[in-house]
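Why does this matter for the project? Reviewers at the last site visit asked to see concrete outputs rather than summary tables. In response, this paragraph embeds two records directly. Each consists of the residue sequence and, immediately after it, the corresponding structure tokens. Nothing has been edited or filtered.
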Amino acid sequence: MAAEGPHWIKCARVHLSFLAFLGFVNVYMLRVNLSVAMVAMVTPTPPDSDYSGECTLPGNSTTSASTTTPSTGATYDWDRATQGLILGSFFYGYIVTQLPGGMLAATYGGKWLFGLGVLCTAVFTLLTPLAAKLGVPVLVATRILEGLGEGVTFPAMHGIWTVWAPPLERTKLVSFSFAGAQFGTIIGLPLSGWITDALGWPYIFYIFGGIAVLWFILWIVLVSNTPATNRFITTEEKDYIESEMSKISDGEPVTVRLFASLL
């Protein structure tokens, strides 16, 4: 029986899980940033016409003094329906690539599919301020393309773990990597607000998109589709993973194992 491999901190499968975690952090930060940026992107609407007045302290004037604040970027006259269309258009693309993503991962492996999915989302995020300037149709198309890229990330990651995660470790490795989605949402929302206040809303897209591109470079350099092709894995760990995976994969097509991992 093969040994379990080196100490966990040196294990290639643990490094893979950490990079996958960061990948999901990135894609969910890229997904939610527009929800915050939209507040600064839209021209403030005036109060309702039937508004009767405002509360003031005794002795204070009822006239509100205008204040000048630093510009946070261009603003647009988008009504509620237009805002909803822009925010929801991401999911028009996201739903399309779910099943194709699973089939591509089963056929070609998940490394490039996951990486390119994140990169696609990052590139179109970087182009979001320009798309907004060009008009609503261009911005909607950009968001749809972002969704197409991000839609393959979950199926691709399942494809990776079908060959990387020993059965007794699969729950821990998969759970940790997917937890990046929740963590990305948690930190993406407040960071977007802080960046908007400090630099302006366009920098939300520039900073988040730039971080995701840097992550893509690390992912492509450090990750491989299988333990056998990984440049950084030890022989001991590779033999252990292959030994454990052979117990469940003999005579079973990769597609079956991929969909089994979804259950």
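We now turn to the second protein, recorded in exactly the same manner.
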Amino acid sequence: MMPAKSRQATAGRKCVFGADGGDDGSFVRDGQSSIDADVVSPVSFVQGWLQQQWQDIMQLWADPEESEAAKRVTSELCRPDGWTIQCDIGAAVARAAGGTGTLARQSSSAEIRLDLRVALDLDAGYEPPQGSVRLLSSSRLLNSSRGFWKVDATDEEDMPTALQMRLSCKDIEVSGETLVPAGALYFNALIDQSNSAGAASAVRLSRGQLTVKEDLGVNLGLFNPRGILAEFKLIGTFRATAADA
């Protein structure tokens, strides 16, 4: 039994856990709530911590939201009036642009020019931006049945800096010589900001290069690498300008 003096000394105090002194049985003064608003049960604390960690992980995996400036560039790329494109294809053109000058595994001196007009449609929900390509002009060699475009590179601020576009083409022949075999034709260009007064678009495409994917033709016995071992071959260049209505 506790001595009277000790009972009197402790009569005005009560023992609580998780308050000032943690869980060591520390005392609080009369009038202080034994349930502090800042005190969280261990289970609730762990649940809150796990929820925060999950939110942080999901944020790391989430696609970065496109900035307003980047949205304006994408909008300009997908302008309703589209783009007028002039293509030059040939060995000399390819060599001048840094290619080997051999087209479709053949050496040819023939050249051809193609003119077309395309529009880029945006597919919502993709980052970086991408979508389908529509031919706005008729062409006997090109079609957009599998037309596709995408932003191929961005800078540190996620601004689009390069674009790739794909159209399907038939065999391109000149005087019986095959310059380009039937298949996908890739249009690659840099995306620049246009500062020209009165320009139809605030964005311009520069340094356009035309490439095709060519199988390397490596024989590995039972394993057929066709469609896997391939390289992009430079076959020409193109100039793209924002089309007027």
